[in-house]
Predict the structure.
Amino acid sequence: MTRLDRGDGVALAYAQSGAGGPTLVFLPGFMSDMTGDKATMLAAYAADLGCSALRLDYSGHGASGGQFVAGTIGSWAQDALFLIDRLTQGEIVLVGSSMGGWIALLVALARPDRISAVACIAAAPDFTEDLIWSQLPEAERTTLMRDGMLRRPSGYGGEQVITRALIEDGRTHRLLGGPIGIACPVRLLHGQRDDAVPWRTSLALAERMHSEDVQVVLVKDGDHRLSRAQDLSLLRRVVAPLLGQDRP
């Protein structure tokens, strides 16, 4: 694991492995990091296929510097672009989990000449508006707007902090309101027992993609994480052709 200062004193953590191309870039979810099962498995798998891999932590996440509450969808997408631009060459295959799926789509829109394919696991575009703001009681909305911050229990234990900046910035990066100008192959995996992001979100994404090469894979008994052994095996089977390989 290495760190690279993004130019403002905040050091972003990343890990690279393998050699050759294309490069698989894994983008983690909200309050997650690059040490999860999907990220580490895919990095090892890419290296085994003779491809490079880049894992990263956004500012305020994992081993990176910066404060979580200072981050937004836009700033975390910029973190990903900063590391991709400085650490990789050639074609990129993006794999994003949950919020990382939203980030992956934003990166693909920002670097269409670099991104050869995108795979999303339980992609959560627009979640700041559709899954947080729209579901907050009026009293909590008032607190958030007045104080700039709202603390609430996390569905995965601990505390979740939502900031006014996160909500307001998220509105400037929404994707589900119209066509999504991504032309490369896109793969969307989603568990139908996902209690965090509705699986129909992946269908909505597929409908809006400019690309004709879009596939949605629904796992009937799959949860939000899709980290069971069978889920990881499915993920390998989906990602391998995107890396130019046919092996399972």
